[in-house]
Amino acid sequence: PTGSARLVSVFHLDSWRRKNLSGLAKAVNELAKRLPDVRLDIFGGGSPASLLEAREALAKSDARSLVRLSGPVANAEISQTLKRYAAFVLPTLRESYGLVHAEALFAGLPIVHSRGMGIDGVLPESTYMAGCDPRSVASIAEAMETLIRNEAAAKEALREAQARGDLDPIRRKAVLDTYSSGLA
């Protein structure tokens, strides 16, 4: 556990609208009223136009001092980068599977995810996964706060889940087997 209120997200900035950057920024701004030390670092590249649009969205949310666009990170470094944070947050407005959520879990990071899409329902409910309504700033802020305040317990539960094999359904082999079965 980091013992901090530092959150992280990873997505390509060309998808900033679908990845709900505005909702995330507003939720961090709301959460800062209760947890003044909260910060969100967002890793990911994008076109110059997308970077400009993302910065403008942050300015409109009044969260520029709380949310930092940190640029791309190499795939080989993503796991070590994620471990420096209390939790991973990505309450997308549309999501198919949400591979980055699985990557965060395998890196030992509890996650905030959107209810009813992506990784929701693939794994059993747990203290290391906080679902939220991605269209509700209050719901996103509540999920983030839950994981920050319970970071040590959530990370321990995740460690135990990994040891028991609870995350096996999102491992490469299980995903490939499910996909192959669906094609057959």
Structural summary, described in words:
The protein has 184 residues and is of the alpha/beta class. It is 42% helix and 15% strand. The chain has a six-stranded parallel sheet with strand order 3-2-1-4-5-6, sandwiched between helices. Helix 2 (48-61) links the parallel strand 2 and strand 3. It is globular.
Features:
about 180 residues, 6-stranded parallel beta sheet, 6 strands, about 40% helix
In short, what is this structure?
The protein has 184 residues and is α/β, with parallel strands linked by helices. It has helices at 21-31, 48-61, 78-82, 99-106, 137-149, 151-164, 172-183, and strands at 6-10, 39-43, 67-71, 87-90, 111-114, 129-132.
Which strand order do you get reading across the main beta sheet? 3-2-1-4-5-6
Q: How many separate helices? A: 7
Taking all Cα atoms into account, the compactness measure Rg is 16 Å
Residues in helix, % = 40-55%
Low-confidence stretches: none
Main sheet overview: 6 strands, parallel
Structural class: alpha/beta
Counted beta strands: 6
The global form is: globular
Instruction: Tell me the strand percentage band.
Output: 5-15%
- What are the secondary-structure elements, in order, as H or E? EHEHEHEHEEHHH
The span between the termini is: 43 Å
Mean pLDDT: 93
